[in-house]
Amino acid sequence: MTDSSPTRRQLLQASGAGIVGLAAVGHPTTAQTPNRQQWAFETEDAVGAAPTVVDGTVFVGSWDNNLYAVDAETGTQQWVFETGGSVSAPTVVDGTVFARSLDENLYAVDAETGTQQWAFEASDWIVPSPTVADGTVFVGSDEGNLYAVDTETGDQRWVFETGDWIRSSATVVDGTVFVGSNDENLYAVDAETGTEQWAFETDNWVASSPTVVDGTVFVGCDDENLYAVDAETGTRQWAFETASWVRSSPTVAGGTVFAGCEHYNLYAVDIETGTQQWLFETGGPVRSSPTVVDSTVFVGSGDGNLYAVDTETGIQQWAFEIDWIESAPTVVDSTVFVGSHDEHVYALDADVDGSSEDSRVALGTLGHHHEWAAEQATDGSGEPDGPTEDEPPAEHDSGVDQDVFDAVDQGGDGNITLEELVDANLERLGHPNNEVNGVEVSLEELVELNIWRVTG
Prior knowledge:
five-stranded mixed sheet; Methylamine Dehydrogenase, Chain H; 37% strand; 5 helices; 2 domains; mainly beta
């Protein structure tokens, strides 16, 4: 039987949002907005790591063996910390920067001064970026070990052994560490004890870093699949076949998982069904891990471009040409920060309002921003929590009752996005009592909210 209810895209078209036609495949264009660059900070080698931005400072590692702290406004260096090998994407928690180096050490560095607090030494390369949760740093190594290290002392708490290199950065949700290994497994490990909860077997290396949303783990694999796996049981929910290896780490926003593959594509896939919504073709491998702000997904490519792509249609909004980009971009306060193989870190006008809000950044995997996001989204929702009991919802003048406004305002930030209106409309149409999140909402109220959103 054919479902006759309107789709998200049909509603978007009917809403007057300016989308003309549907694009199953997007292609890069050469048009580039002038003067997008705010600054460029030069290192002495390629910058493949994702920047982390906290309290007005960009923390980033480089292949020149250095960890840098750079002023986010001006691009001037605040300090540099020298190691014996190339440096990963850092994680910043409670005034400490945690980063690994290919000198086989995990470092803790004071975020203000750049002085070393401690170093934890493995017996082989530490390639993935560290992840921090509940006073513990989690990081894998080429020994095949996943380490849990105390954030205060640098002492090992436990070690979990896999059968091959770990090139995947860990993601921690609700007391479980999710990490891939080149032994062809995705693992769930108890964060407190280091005991295995389950292992999901694939057909090749799992070098992609997982992300977790609403009880599902999403991860790419060198067997050319993007997987959705139940976080509790480790059973496969679906597999989406791509054109090549998936070493880009997926991220989720607005019911869609975004991931790149080695054969030049950025994919948008429905998180529930695993069906392709669109693909965007670049001119090089997409190892960069995407990030999402509102209705724009940002990703780098081996063709040397940073792309901004519409999340609904897969149509390019703009591109900025630099050099090979495998760095995962991070957007903070309408500025996108990204590294490049041309030995620079860039700050670019993102042409959007806000900061990265996708699951990868919210869970602190491969770069993050502001305060440690895992404290805001410990349930794996990939979305920061809304107002607390002590923080009433923001005032609005939309003309609808507060309970209706709150039902549609899923983010709880006092704003109504087009995506929230579309989701509300779809939920209302599917409910016998025209309810949205338990509140009866009329069509007229949705129209009023749309008018308020556009004119306000």
